[in-house]
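Whiteboard transcription, Tuesday session. T.W. wrote the structure tokens on the left side:
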């Protein structure tokens, strides 16, 4: 946990500083550089950081249990939907953010505003895979052509979708297939093939380290973290966008936050067009503000979902599917991993 400023809370208040929670690693570093340091400098509001690995249950436990240690949290889509339905998040004042039309349609929700538009792609070590690398999820599964361990997120979400695409299911048929018992069985059978070759990770920030230590040769990853590692560590990590899954992450304010006014102020700061453009300079990511997308340099759209060339056969994450089926598929997946 990091503290950006230590003395600028409300005068005379013994409240802890405004606390913002992200995914850690280079993504959190980018948010700090683009937003948080400047916010504290310009407003005098103390800001503390924390990180987490997701899951609405974590937030439910905090809010219901009376733990008010977090204010703003970066969440995935299905956690946004569930948390909003359960009253875990505040409903946003959209007028203060410039209105819903100032953002991509997928980035405007009653309880959340888009933090970034991201994708999960194939990332691999170009020093170990010479020549043409993997160009599909079938290639990711092909351990004879591309020997070595694979990194995958330890969750059925994404894993089942990628398994079906590796088995030849077109992107637009993945969720219709997963909505059938036979489709789920098919996905798990495909996962059986690669399971002995998988190193499971729980935090996306682990991927650059797993690749850098040569524990794995390729991984499911978000592109920005590998590009930052190439810049800062001299790595030769490469990406393939075929069959990527894309979605939006959101900023939410927890319903039990004692710093609601300051949290709303930080949301306004982070979603201004000029500030979102600054984020793209520190880590490649898709932006959610319409004006930010208009003014950002074309070079900063490369290796993000904002570049149409990357999205020709992409799959949009179906958050409603995971809201509906997430619990039962997670139980089955966890039992399968444990076998």
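and on the right, the sequence the group agreed on:
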């Amino acid at each position: 946990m990091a503290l950006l400023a230590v003395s600028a809370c409300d005068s005379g208040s013994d409240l802890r500083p405004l606390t913002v929670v992200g995914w850690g690693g280079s993504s959190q570093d980018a948010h700090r550089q683009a937003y948080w340091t400047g916010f504290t400098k310009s407003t005098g509001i103390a800001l503390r950081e924390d990180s987490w690995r997701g899951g609405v249950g974590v937030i439910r436990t905090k809010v219901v249990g009376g733990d008010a240690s977090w204010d703003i949290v970066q969440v995935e889509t299905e956690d946004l939907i569930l948390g909003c339905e359960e009253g875990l998040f505040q409903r946003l004042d959209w007028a203060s953010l410039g209105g819903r039309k100032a953002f991509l349609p997928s980035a405007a929700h009653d309880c959340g505003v888009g933090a970034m538009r991201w994708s999960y792609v194939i990332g691999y070590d170009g020093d170990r895979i010479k020549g043409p690398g993997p160009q599909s999820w079938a290639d990711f599964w092909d351990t004879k052509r591309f020997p070595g361990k694979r990194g995958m997120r330890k969750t059925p979400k994404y894993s089942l979708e990628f398994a079906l695409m590796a088995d030849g299911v077109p992107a637009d048929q993945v969720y219709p297939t997963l909505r059938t018992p036979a489709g789920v069985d098919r996905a798990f059978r495909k996962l059986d093939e690669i399971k002995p070759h998988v190193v499971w990770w729980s935090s996306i920030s682990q991927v650059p380290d797993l690749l850098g230590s040569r524990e794995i040769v390729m991984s499911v990853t978000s592109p920005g973290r590998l590009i930052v590692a190439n810049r800062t560590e001299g790595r030769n990590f490469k990406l393939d966008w075929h069959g990527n899954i894309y979605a939006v992450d959101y900023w939410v304010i927890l319903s039990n936050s004692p710093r609601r006014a300051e949290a709303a102020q930080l949301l306004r700061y982070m979603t201004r067009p000029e500030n979102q453009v600054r984020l793209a300079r520190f880590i490649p990511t898709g932006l959610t503000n319409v004006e930010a997308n208009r003014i950002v340099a074309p070079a900063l759209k490369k290796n993000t979902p904002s570049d149409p060339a990357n999205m020709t056969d992409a799959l949009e994450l179906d958050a409603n599917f995971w809201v509906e089926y997430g619990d039962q598929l997670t139980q089955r997946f966890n039992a399968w991993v444990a076998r």
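Someone added at the bottom: The chain has two domains: 2-117+247-306, 119-246+311-338.
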